Amino acid sequence: MILKNEFLEVEISEYGASIVSIMVPDKDGKKVDVVLGYDSLDKYKRQTKYIGATVGRCCGRIKDGKIKIKDKIYKLSQNEGKNHLHGGNIGFDKKFWQARKIDDSVEMFYKSADGEENYPGNLNVKVTYSLDGESVVINYSAITDKETICNLTNHSYFNLNGYGDVLNQKVQIFSNNFIENDSDLLPTGEIKSVTNTVMDFRRPKTIGKDINSDFYQVKLANGFDNNWIIKNYNGEIHRAARAFSDETGIELEVYTDLPGVQFYSGNFLDGAENGKNDMPIKNHSGFCLECQYLPYAVDYKNFTKPILKPGKLYNKTIIYKFKTK
Ligand code: GLA
User: Fold this and answer.
1) Other CB atoms closer than 10 Å to residue 165's CB: what's the count?
2) How many CA atoms lie within 13 A of 199 on its CB side?
3) What residue owns the CA closest to ligand 1's atom 12?
4) Which of 127, 101, 95, 131 minimizes the C-alpha distance to 113?
5) Which residue, by CA, sits nearest to atom 6 of ligand 1?
6) What is the torsion angle, in degrees rounded to the nearest 10, for the CA atoms of residue 297, residue 300, residue 305 and residue 308?
7) Which of 151, 159, 316, 155 is nearest to 238 (CA)?
8) Model confidence at 298: pLDDT above 80
9) 47-51, long-range: CB < 8 A, 24+ apart
10) Closest approach atom of ligand 1 to CA 225
């Protein structure tokens, strides 16, 4: 399904409620596809890197798949070693969503049954993609009939050149603090200051500058793969991060009303299959800025928990805004 206006052209797929492509004009007016993706459904079915997908019911890692809701322990499916990752074995990224196009929007619906991947409650989810000038606006809404966890994100891998690696592209994250990971890339719950570390992206920095640093967090992940806590978060939509390429002049701004952003430099991309236009999808071919509730928050009292109760509406927004200079 295609959404198009005078500036952007976006392709959305029912499989995984995914973004397949985002075409943005570069400084010479040439259209550049700024996200990684595949040109066949079979490749989407085979891929394991969540490229472009809606991730849920809970994005990020959960230790031993164990969550506690209303004093009851649930053991979610363990699909990454002993841990739960990105919704489980067959997460929202591997489901066919029902879609309907309304004017400048695409609405996608999925009913996640009580017990799916061992999550409690029937969860009715709607993802709406729409264009607003130079922005791709993604709205997530969900309701449940039993208390559950719900933390949805979009897993687009951006490459603002449309080819090659992203090491010369600059990223800025509006955050003073990141969440420490352990060797399984599970958050330890420790909130660390970015000051005097390579995790400081308060000023724009090329992704490649410190990607081989011996800072312990970068070493554990073979690059960047942490959650940054967005500065001055107050539940309103605010700017979380920014990225740009001097080569194409394309700039991306990420806005959200969620409290954290996972900056991931594509360290697990392994070249397994080429993407659209035969582009290799390998280490650092793209980067992600995944807006979300802080990962693994269910277990730490200092993180807002992504708990959804019956009668409450989950309603969150992620905006990708593009400019060309
Ligand atoms: C997220 C995680 C990474 C990795 C990718 C998917 O961004 O933070 O560690 O699991 O998803 O490959």
Assistant:
1) 20
2) 28
3) 49
4) 95
5) 49
6) 90
7) 316
8) no
9) 47/272, 47/273, 49/157, 49/268, 49/269, 49/281, 50/16, 50/86, 50/93, 50/155, 51/18, 51/155, 51/156, 51/157, 51/275, 51/281, 51/286
10) 8
**Which residue has the least CA distance to atom 8 on ligand 1?**
225
Q: Check if 288 has its Cβ closer than 6 Å to any atom of ligand 1.
A: yes
d(CA 118, CA 64) in angstroms, rounded, equals 13
pLDDT of residue 300: 65
CB atoms within 10 A of CB 46: 11
**Which parts of 133-208 are beta strand (E)?**
135-144, 148-149, 153-154, 170-173, 175-181, 187-193, 205-206
Is 225 near ligand 1, meaning CB less than 6 Å away? yes
Residues 323 and 325: their CA atoms lie apart, in Å, by: 7
What's the burial of 256, exposed, middle or buried (CB within 10 Å: 0-12/13-18/19+)? Answer: buried
Please say if 84 is a catalytic residue: no
The reply to whether 290 belongs to the active site is: yes
pLDDT tens digits for 32-43?
A: 999 999 999 999
| Whether residue 51 has its Cβ less than 6 Å from ligand 1 | no
Tokens for 281, please give them.
């999808």
pLDDT digits 0-9 by tens, 76-107: 999 999 999 999 999 999 999 999 999 889 99
Structure tokens at 316: 């969150």
pTM for this entry: 0.97
Tokens of 67: 């969550």
Cα–Cα dist 287/267, whole Å: 9
Helix (H) or strand (E) holding 43: helix 41-46
Distance CA 190, CA 37 (A): 34
Mutate to test the pocket of ligand 1, among 268, 285, 296 (most ligand atoms within 8 A of CB): 268
Question: What domains appear along the chain, each with residue ranges and CATH number?
Answer: 2-324 (2.70.98.10)
User: CB-based contacts of 109: which residues, under 8 Å, 6+ apart?
Assistant: 97, 98, 99, 124, 125, 126
